[in-house]
Amino acid sequence: MSETAPALPEAIEDWFAARGWTIHPHQHAMLARAAAPCTLLIAPTGGGKTMAGFLPTLAELADGTHDGLHTLYISPLKALAADIKRNLRTPVEEIGLPIRIDDRTGDTPASRKKRQRADPPHILLTTPESLALLTSYEDAARTFKGLRRVVVDEIHALAESKRGDQLILALARLQTLCPDLRRVGLSATVDDPQAIASYLARHPDPCDIVLADPGPAPDIRMLQTEEAPPWAGGGAAYAIPAVMAQIKAHKTTLIFHNTRAQAEIFFHNLWLANEDALPIGIHHGSLDRVQRERVEAAMVRGELRAIVCTGSLDLGIDWGDVDLVIQIGAPKNVKRLVQRIGRANHRYNAPSKALLVPANRFEVVECRAALEAVRESDLDGAPRGPGPRDVLCQHILIAACAGPFDADELYAEMTQAGAYAGLSRAAFDACLTFCATGGYALKAYDQWQRLLQRPDGKWQLRDPRAAQRIRMNLGTIQDADLIKVRLKRSRGGKPLGEVEEAFAATLTPGDTFLIGGQTVRYEGLREMTVEVSRNPGRKPKIAVFSGTKFATSTQLSARILAMFKQDSWPALPRHTAEWLDLQREVSELPRAGRLLIESFPHDSREHICVYGFAGRNAQQTLGLLLTKRMEELGLDPLGFVATDYATLIWGLQEVADPAPLFEPEALRDGLEGWLAGNAVMKRSFRGAATIAGLIERNTPGARKNGRQATFSSDILYDTLRKYDPEHLLMDITREEALRGLVDFGRIEEMLERTRGRITLRRLERISPLAAPLLLEVGKVPVKGAAEEKLLQQEAAALMRQSGLDKLQ
Amino acid sequence: MTGYDFTLAGARLTALGSGALWWAEHRLLCVSDLHLGKSERLARRGGSALPPYETRDTLARLAELIANLQPDTVVCLGDSFDDDAASRALPDAEQSQLAALIHNRRWIWITGNHDPAPADLSGEQMAELHLAPLTFRHIADPLATAEVSGHYHPKARVRSTSRPCFLLDRSRLILPAFGTYTGGLRSTDPALTALMAADALAILTGAQALVVPMPR
Asked: For the purposes of burial, counting CB atoms within 10 Å of the CB of A386, is it exposed (0-12), middle (13-18) or buried (19 or more)?
């Protein structure tokens, strides 16, 4: 970067000088581009990225002449917004700059929010959802008057999600209100900066990209342990002593897990081994906010030696003196791994230090592949498709909340968002019709439509009170249905966190599970809250509330298959090499150009294991498609489980000839018909219908009395499928499912790779490679003929056991 | 028939897999909680516009039962409409669909908590129907015996499958909701466990009615 830096106001220069700080070259570059309409900065964690984003703002506000809002800062995390507020206020106060800074998130008290709208600060720190909410008020134009800059932090994380799509639509709105608005994006290292630049810029404007010095290569390796990792499982309990030793040897260690359940179990085990009673905390998205904040605060004060966490800590909150990152379980995605590692040694120009801890032997292979990818800077990324239409529908409703709008103008504004640049007018109109009337083939209750067209052609809410309901349901974050867990009221009623509803439904009083590192006993369900009591000392029933599961990227899968081709594995620990040798001896190793299927009896059921290496979602879809075919062929499948590399299916009959199951045409044909009725589609539908505003998660004044009042979105899906299969939401659902949870693209890729070359290995018993699947959580039952048989058997057994059958 | 046969206070009844109750002796068909017009009511109240097909779907399923069983009497056990306005706002096609069902048989509307006032439809309105030895009413009376009621939309879980269900003990039968847009209340809910005797049964709806001890 050769730009000569424009002069900073003297007071700011002096403040930097007094601290012995110099301004980084990329910070200069950002100052030099202060007037550019759009700039993207790519810098490693700890590179003073946020300061680079704010320096131009501080310079512009230093003379105290600006009136009203000047800079809007958007972060994906509430905690990050609060953190930046603290970090920014320090220099502003010490320099004595006349700048007001405030944050606004879902946690901000209503009175302060109201004040912010009437009298906004110079710098407002917020989240995409809070911003969308701000734009939904009738006084939005007044609130944003004078706005010059918007800084989007951690834009790489937002650009991959619907939250980012919502954000960029909100920016299009702001750009209309404030035509001179300049956009700045701050990103961690990514595989394709240009994609993020086009996402950020107003279409078709260009966007400058500033690349900061990436710093020294990270010091990253696999943790050496005395004990070999187990064949299967995800707990990594074997590594507890070695991890404990690392914690002792470092100042502060972050221990990342792929799922919340694993984090809980690991924390539990770590605590049992914590003989020196080191201060160790746990942090994940299911924990109660108060508890999370306490851990965050203790971390910032440097009081914790380690934090067991999940992706809830992925983004760049300043954690002070973290000098080691440990990743438990294989990283499913190299890009995320690199960003996590960046958390260690949060100082510029010091190498980050990280350890990978595979939880089982397959993960040793995965970790090895990830290490090689990191060394070769082979970051994985999949391009995102066009902007999703459910977010678009929500944006239309938000626009209607702010006041009557003109459809032509709104369409023109939306197509300035990169992701929606290709949106056709017909597609927009279909969304508008959906928002206005529901868009059904049957024109019923038209007098109650949500949006009305006025005589002047503008659209408005039929009932202005609807604005409140729309605002209450705003946002695109789709959690599985979570329900709160709290201590039983007589014992204080303290909230502990949340578990998935499906998990809660499996609990019976007396069951124990882990949450927030403590073992609790399930007492009962009360007003949709799980009530528990403390139950120390008892072995917990395994917590299966899952948190996000990511699919291993295509790039990593390909690397693993390439490793399997080797004659021997000198780079792998001996136990893992021996395990692969054993697999080769009793069966064979999967190859890229051929589909390996193993068939074996186990536990009085027939099993097949299909090594597709297509990633968790696609393997899951494959499980659904194959079991459906098996059902048709009378093979009585009972269930399946999928991992990133294989699908294991069990049932009552042996599969002697798998070829008919894998005919690509049959799979593709099966997809359309099959897709319609399956649970994945229903889940995708629920997400799309909630975002598009068909399903309201929150209603004003509604106190839900049990679940009788609400009915499942599955019913809406089934109804539309039966009576209105061409409805917009069905179309959106299909699109979403195919590229998201269904991931059929990677099945196609696998079929293309193997081209009907199938090897069936009939084995006497389960193979070394298949064994880990038996211990996977997330088994999917097949509700077919076999299940109906077993259901009847179970019902009869229950009646016999209770003696009730004799009463009839 | 895919039903489960049992006796309540001496009356021989069949719980059908569809969620309806059949009393062969009187050729009486009973369904509960149809919640017709639910999507219209939600839209009217400023909510979102749900797919407006639940009324025709509910009526189509009811028509199929009536065609198969040819009942002399049909009892709708309350909450037949999502509210009174919904009964008046029924589109013409659905009005005539319903009228065709009511025609030529005794049709009884038991009033519910959602639709307390008489609907503007043919058929008899009553708060309770006494047909010895049974009493049909919308909400169970904890002190009553030989009682058939609805209201709670009970559902129960066996293995990992949760389905709408009948609840049955020596004193009463509670019907599942028959309407398409209806949710369920788990049989483990205190409202239901308090009402039903310790040896109560749950009869799960589905292709085949399945009887299990009531999960509590």
From this structure: middle
Of the candidate ranges A432-436, A529-533, A555-559, B102-106, the one whose mean pLDDT is the lowest = A529-533
More confident residue, A704 or A196: A196
A124 to each of A85, A111, A141, A383, A733, how far by Cα in Å? Answer: 9, 16, 15, 31, 36
Here the CATH number for the domain that contains residue A235 is: 3.40.50.300
Q: State the CB neighbour count (10 A cutoff) for residue B71.
A: 21
Does position A576 have pLDDT exceeding 60, yes or no? yes
A123/A614 Cα distance (integer angstroms): 45
Strand partners, A451: A461
Distance from CA of A228 to the nearest CA of B (A): 36
User: Which tokens is A594 given?
Assistant: 């051929």
Cβ neighbours of A806 in B, within 8 Å: none
What gap in Å lies between CA A401 and CA A170, rounded to an integer?
13
Verify that A350 and A260 share a domain, yes or no: yes
Answer whether residue A554 is part of any domain. Answer: no
Asked whether A205 and A417 are in contact (CB, 8 A), the reply is no
Distance separating alpha carbons of residues A396 and A390, to the nearest angstrom: 10
Indicate the residue type of A559: R
**Cα dihedral sign for A170, A174, A179, A184?**
negative
Please tell me the total count of domains within chain B: 1
Of B6, B47, B162, the CB nearest to A696: B47
> Which phi and psi (to 5°) does residue B125 adopt?
-105, 135
Quote the domain boundaries for residue A680.
Answer: 587-790
Residues of chain B neighbouring A706 (CB-CB closer than 8 A): 185-186, 189, 191
Gap between the Cα atoms of A574 and A752, Å rounded:
34
Q: Is the pLDDT of residue A64 over 70?
A: yes
In tens, the pLDDT along A256-302 reads 988 777 888 899 889 888 899 999 999 887 788 788 888 888 887 88
Q: Token pair for residue A709?
A: 């009042």
Whether the CB of B198 is below 8 Å from some CB of chain A: the reply is no
> Which residues are paired to A491 by β-bridges?
none
* Judgement on whether residues A300 and A344 belong to the same structural domain of the protein: yes
Chain A and chain B share a number of CB contacts under 8 A equal to 126
DSSP 3-state assignment of B68? helix
Domain that holds residue B61: 4-213
Task: Please tell me whether residue A28 adopts helix, strand or coil conformation.
Answer: helix
Our CA dihedral for B126, B131, B133, B136, rounded to 10 degrees, sits at -30
Nearest by CB to residue B212, choosing from A781, A799, A808, is: A799
Q: Which residue out of A451, A522, A708, A787 would a mutagenesis test of the B interface target, given it has the greatest number of B Cβ atoms within 10 Å?
A: A708
